[in-house]
Write a structure and sequence with these properties.
Length: about 350
């Protein structure tokens, strides 16, 4: 009597990220997957490790020697917020990529096991395939929204696509005398970091290490750049953007106090739309924002419609949920105090704290 046929399951294991053949296979899988984002690229995982010191991990599933699923993970260490496995670390997307008919439940089980072995009581999945009705997991469907629109054919059409009130602000910015610089040179990087650091301090948020921005720019090559708006030679607004599959994503951007009066931020985003169009991009991805936050309404004012994002979090049995949400009541006092710090002090302390936010 013949034994019953048992379908072969996937082999799930951590990839050897020091093996060039292994990394090439992962990169090929990501390049071919329709749902891949910049945050699935090994360049992102490696940049996070180089810029923050958090260890990169890649959980892969193989079937007959072919990769059929990939989960990039950053092992985040924070003396303030605790330990975390994030997919992907410091990203707004980058969760599990899987081919059809893959047993994703087994991959989530492996991720849980990795978290426990590494004393990480929490996992965060940002996008991708998510666990459904699995013990220990919580889905968040209303906390964040994404914003994407097609780019218009030319500047005038782009202006007309912006709602009237915001269009008037953009026109004011266009009327001001600014110098626009685009690149990845030391001058571009220094200007961006100075502006971004001041911007996030004013929001009450610790700034990321300068090494993180350098690592992303170095590893993404022509798929990342900095656009800076200067007034009388002084940088007032600057944004580091990623480019992926015909979309531009302004990822780390901000402006000084002077930028508000000069409409420097409005000019910056309009110039980025122009620059992206010249690069051949078809879409502008304004990234995610917390629902009903100031950034959320700012993007709506530009004519972007919010699309709810779904994230998933796992908490180990017996552990309290991780809370690194800057809008939670728990952190309100710290944020208020951080806004009052001298910029030099905030820039010295911020990277030490921010590298553990994940």
């Amino acid at each position: 009597m013949n034994a019953p046929f048992v379908p072969q399951r996937e082999r799930i294991h951590l990839a050897d990220l020091a093996d060039p053949n292994e990394t090439a296979r992962i990169e090929a899988f990501v390049a071919a997957h329709p749902d891949a984002t910049p945050f699935h690229r090994l360049a992102w995982l490696q940049a996070i490790a180089a810029g923050t010191g958090n260890r990169p991990l890649a959980l892969i599933a193989e079937h007959h020697g072919e990769i059929v699923a990939y989960l990039p993970l950053s092992e985040i260490h924070s003396p303030i917020f605790g330990r975390l496995l994030a997919s992907s670390g410091f990203a707004v997307d980058g969760g599990l990529l899987a081919s059809d008919d893959v047993d994703v439940a087994a991959i989530f089980a492996q991720a849980e096991g990795q978290a426990l072995r590494r004393s990480c009581p929490a996992i965060e999945l940002r996008g991708g395939s998510l666990p459904q009705d699995r013990a220990g997991w919580t889905l968040k469907t209303e906390s964040h929204c994404g914003f994407v629109i097609p780019l218009a054919a030319d500047d005038e059409a782009q202006l007309l696509a912006i709602p009237r009130k915001q269009r008037a602000e953009v026109r004011k910015g266009l009327a001001n005398s600014f110098e626009i610089e685009i690149g990845t040179s030391a001058r571009d990087r220094a200007a961006h970091y100075a502006v971004y650091a001041e911007s996030v301090r004013n929001l009450g948020t610790p700034v990321f290490p300068r090494a993180l921005f350098d690592a992303v720019l170095d590893r993404f090559g022509t798929d990342a750049d900095i656009l800076t708006v200067r007034h009388e030679g002084v940088a007032v607004a600057s944004v580091l953007s990623l480019y992926h599959r015909g979309a531009v994503m302004p990822y780390w951007g901000g402006g000084t106090q002077a930028a508000r009066l000069l409409r420097g931020n409005d000019r910056m985003y309009f110039e980025l739309m122009r620059h992206a169009r010249e690069r051949g991009c078809s879409h502008f991805d304004f990234g995610r924002s917390k629902t009903n936050s100031g950034a959320y309404h700012f993007k709506r004012n530009w004519g972007f419609e919010p699309e709810p994002l779904t994230y998933a979090t796992w908490t180990a049995p017996g552990e309290a949920p991780r809370d690194a949400d800057p809008t939670s009541r728990k952190h309100a006092l710290q944020i208020a105090l951080w806004r009052k710090l001298p910029l030099a002090v905030a820039n010295r302390l911020g990277p030490w704290i921010a590298r553990g936010l994940g």
